[in-house]
Structures are given as C-alpha cells and as structure tokens.
Amino acid sequence: MESQKKYDRTFSFEFFPPKTVDGISKLEATSQLLAELKPRFFSVTFGAGGSTRDRTYETIIDIRAKSGIDAAPHLSCISSTQENIGQMLAGYIEAGINRIVALRGDMPSGMVEAGEFRHANELVEFIRRETGDHFHIEVAAYPEFHPQASSPTRDIANFKRKVEAGANGAITQYFYNPDAYFSFIDSCEKNAIDIPVVPGIMPITNFHQLARFSDACGAEIPRWIRKRLQAFGEDTASIRSFGEDVVTGLCQRLLEQGAPGLHFYTMNRAEPSMKIWKSLNLSND
C-alpha cells in the first residue's frame, strides 16, 4: 500500500442520468446535499451502448452549474466512434469540464460489434491524442478481477495498458472484502503501476437489488454478509443498519491502510453515503 499513501485523499460521488422530471428534481436535491461535503468531483454514468449519451451531458452540465462541484462524465467505448467521441470531448472542453472517466462499458443485449474502440486503453489513447493533457482521466480497476478476464495476470496487464495509455487515476468496482483491494494494489506495485486507485463504495440498503447488481458485475458479497442480509428478510431498517455498519467498517479499514480516498456509488440517493461519511468523520477541508 506504500504507493497509495503518497496521494492526497480524493472523495467523490457517482450518479446516473435521471429519466424523468421527478428524477431530475430528486437528483438535484441529492447533489445539493452531497455538495455540502465538498467532494473533489461528482461523476455521471454512461448507459450501456451509449444509451444515455445526451442525458449524461445534460446532467453533467446541470450538476456542475448548480452545485459548484467539478463534474466528470463517463465515456464508453461501446457503440462509440472517433467522430462522436471527438464531438463529446469538444463539447465538454467548451463547457469547462476537465475530468473524464473512460471505460470500456457494457455491451447491450443483442449487440455483436463493440464499435471503433474495443478496449478502454484505446479510448484513453484517443482522448490524449485529441486533447493532450486537458482532461484528468480516471479508468476502472477490478480488485476481484474483471468478470471477463481470463486470468488475474491478464487482468492486471489490461489495467497496466490503460495506465500506460495516459490514465491519471483509477476507481475500482465496488467490493466488500478489503483484502481483495490490498492484494490488487500489491499486484500493481509488483507491475510498476503507480497511480492512485480509489476504492469504489456501494452502500447496502436493499439486499435483492445488491445481489442482482453483484451477480451481473462479478462483485462478491462475502458469505457472512449475504447470510446476514438474507436473514433480515423484508426488515428494511435492519438491512440498512447492518449495511451501514459493514460499509463503514470497510471504509475505515481501507483509509487506515492508506487508500487514497473513496468513491461512493450513490444510486442517486444522498442519505446512505452521508451516513457513512458522518460515521467516518470525514472532511475535505
């Protein structure tokens, strides 16, 4: 973990583009509350196959203007071309955006061809070629390994390609086993990878939703956590209380061991992340 201890802590929150007027209003309220914590940035996701391209742009511009917090749009390889990525980059530069989260992205059901960019390192290379050092580029990291990686060795090699292409930092897939993160950082250090790798944090508020997400993305819910959550049944209050304790403990251990910050997957809700933040007594001052 020595490589991570030298970096300043970065705290950030992730949203998805709302689909309805009510969703827009709720996200505005959420972002205003979280802006009071003074995070380094907010990020906004990019739907499978670029399905939220316009809404991602609109959400980024709106959040940044109303909250005063830097905003980072996600860009995805899937269904993207050099032309449309170039247009989006130009639009973000014009709007004063200087941070990007560059991902391979999810392949929509039924899609066969990924597009002109097959892997995230190719997208990072293109952004650097077209815009130089204008953007601070974050990429994804997978402490429990990408679900499509053929081996841990291949997975770390893929990550290194993204770093060599010009990534400034990384945000991990969420996890609940801190040893997976520590082992991943150890592998990075052994492979001369030296960028800040910020843990992705998913608050636990709904077991069935969490299980579905985790099964889809390959994030492991440790057996003891899964069994405890199952035992609560439909007792939402107990699930949330237990989940808050588990995730707060996880974050505390990560920060104590030298993790360079936390990135919260908010699901467009402020309260779960804010409770963990306050339990940790965090400050960005």
Would you kindly provide a brief summary of this structure?
With 285 residues, the chain is of the alpha/beta class. It has one domain (2-280): TIM Barrel, CATH 3.20.20.220.
Secondary-structure map:
Blueprint: H1 2-5, E1 10-15, H2 21-35, E2 41-44, H3 53-67, E3 71-76, H4 82-94, E4 99-103, H5 120-131, E5 136-141, H6 152-165, E6 169-174, H7 178-190, E7 197-201, H8 207-217, H9 223-231, H10 236-256, E8 261-265, H11 271-280
Please bin the fraction of helical residues: 40-55%
- How would you write the strand order of the largest sheet? 1-2-3-4-5-6-7-8
The main pleated sheet reads as:
8 strands, parallel, barrel
CATH architectural designation: Alpha-Beta Barrel
The helix/strand series, from N terminus to C terminus, equals HEHEHEHEHEHEHEHHHEH
- How many β-strands, per DSSP? 8
Count of discrete domains: 1
Basic shape: globular
**Residue share in β-strands:** 15-25%
Distance between the termini: 24 Å
- Mean pLDDT comes to 92
Enumerate the spans where pLDDT stays under 50 for 5 or more consecutive residues: none
Assembly type of the shown chains? single chain
Provide the CATH topology.
TIM Barrel
Structural class by helix and strand composition:
alpha/beta
CATH class: Alpha Beta
What is the rounded Rg?
18 Å
Q: What is the overall number of helices?
A: 11
